[in-house]
Amino acid sequence: MTSDTMTFTLRPPDPSGDAGLLHRWVTHPKAAFWMMQDASPRDVERAYREIAADEHHHALLGLRDAEPVFLMEKYDPAHRELVGLYEPRPGDVGMHFLVAPTDTPVHGFTRAVITAVMAHLFADPATRRVVVEPDVGNKAVHALNEAVGFVPEREIQKPEKRALLSFCTRERFLRAVSA
After folding, report:
1. What does the alpha-carbon distance between residue 51 and residue 75 come to, in Å, rounded to a whole number?
2. What share of the chain is helix, strand, coil (3-state, %, to 5)?
3. Are 48 and 19 in contact (CB under 8 A)?
4. What are phi and psi of 110, to 5 degrees?
5. Is 111 left (phi over 0), alpha (psi -120 to 50) or beta?
6. Chain mean position to CA 136
7. What are 105-133's pLDDT values in tens digits?
8. Residues 93/57, Cβ–Cβ less than 8 Å
9. Would you call 19 exposed, middle or buried from its count of C-beta atoms within 10 A (0-12, 13-18, 19+)?
10. pLDDT by residue (tens digit) across 131-157?
């Protein structure tokens, strides 16, 4: 999976083997919107074990040069996260992503990650539209979403947050990344 000059590979996380790594990521202050700040390593392992067993929710670790650098989750919004909050269409896929915290940020890296995540999701011909529901206060991710073609529809109230429901079609994504 390539985004501009960065190449990423994907693999499912190993809930026990990757729990320490994932725990460091999801409890980092920059991951506040992931809402796992108080999770223990055991909580993280349990969460990713549940995702691995869930037919409607999948997690993948993104690697660059064999090093894990991001986490992505995809889910079926007709069965997870957004049930009853909007009318899902055939081909809708929900998505979350988290870039590993670093002390040496690389300019354009997060945009390369979201571009690669979107390319991966749209590589499946059954995916017609990607759905996201970030916290309304997460302005950085709103800008990234817009950069890859997402269009906000409306704010929704989820049990854990006020979220900005946004959609990106394959056509909008292709236009955004070719501009």
Report:
1. 10
2. 35, 30, 40
3. yes
4. -65, -40
5. alpha
6. 16
7. 899 999 999 999 999 999 999 999 999 99
8. no
9. buried
10. 999 999 999 999 999 999 999 999 999
- Say whether pTM exceeds 0.90: yes
- d(C-alpha 35, C-alpha 26), whole Å: 8
Distance CA(178)–CA(128), nearest Å, equals 18
Largest alpha-carbon pair distance within the chain?
Answer: 44
The domains of the chain are located at 2-178
Q: What's the rounded Cα separation, in Å, for the pair 89 and 162?
A: 22
| Non-local CB neighbours of 3 within 8 Å, separated by 6+ positions | 112, 113, 115, 116, 119
Q: What is the CATH number of domain 2-178?
A: 3.40.630.30
Of 67, 69, 65, 72, which is closest to residue 97 (Cα–Cα)? 72
Q: Which of 106, 68, 95, 98 is nearest to 173 (CA)?
A: 95
d(CA 24, CA 37): 10
CA dihedral 46, 48, 49, 52 (to 10 degrees): 160
> Which residue is it, tokens 């929900």?
94
Give residue 20's Cα distance to chain centre: 19
CA angle 115, 139, 92 (to 5 degrees): 50
Angle between helices 41-53 and 19-26 (to 10 degrees): 110
